[in-house]
Write a structure and sequence with these properties.
Blueprint (H helix, E strand, L loop, with lengths): L1 E10 L4 E6 L11 E4 L2 E11 L2 E6 L5 H5 L5 E4 L10 H4 L3 E3 L5 E10 L4 E6 L3 E5 L5 E4 L3 E3 L7
InterPro entries: PRC_barrel-like_sf, PRC_RimM, RimM, RimM_N, RimM_N_sf, Transl_B-barrel_sf
Subcellular location: Cytoplasm
Main location: cytoplasm
Length: 151
């Protein structure tokens, strides 16, 4: 299962839920199967709303039912194709700087409003924003450019 985010509230009276998604560029497919708190739901619609994504689920038709889903995790069964870097892709991977020096391994991912931040633990702990300016490649190992990081 791949973690997408958490239901943070209900929206309106027709049963839409607000998802705080950790992947802002994730594209939901019509009729996609998602799991909330382990139960399977079918997506009817998804649209952005402020800092969240509103989900309409075929099985949820009232605000009361939507409120019952609050604070539950949202996952999907299969990793979709695309450019999204998933937490599962980077946790425990080795990180090297632009000169090929070993910096440590990713031990945690901190979610911030702007972007996720990798916590790299090695000789010292380094916080690296998970954005293209710093993270250059994610593969068997992670290559980063730390030249612009503040000491």
């Amino acid at each position: 299962m791949y973690f997408l985010g958490v239901i943070v509230g209900a929206h309106g009276i027709k049963g839409e839920v607000k998802l705080r998604c950790q992947y802002p560029d994730f594209v939901f497919a019509p009729s996609q199967k998602i799991f909330i708190g382990g139960a399977e739901y079918t997506l009817a619609a998804a649209r952005p709303h402020k800092a969240h994504i509103l989900l309409a689920l075929r099985e949820i038709t009232s605000r009361t039912a939507a409120v019952a889903l609050c604070r539950q995790s949202v996952t999907i069964a299969a990793k979709p194709d695309g450019q999204t870097v998933w937490a599962e892709d980077v946790l425990r991977k080795e990180v090297y700087d632009q000169h090929g020096r070993f910096l440590g391994s990713v031990t945690e991912i901190i979610q911030s409003p702007a972007h996720d931040v990798l916590v790299v633990t090695g000789e010292k702990e380094i916080l690296i924003p998970l954005v293209e300016n710093f993270v250059r490649e994610v593969g068997e190992k992670i290559k980063v450019d730390i030249s612009a990081l503040a000491e």
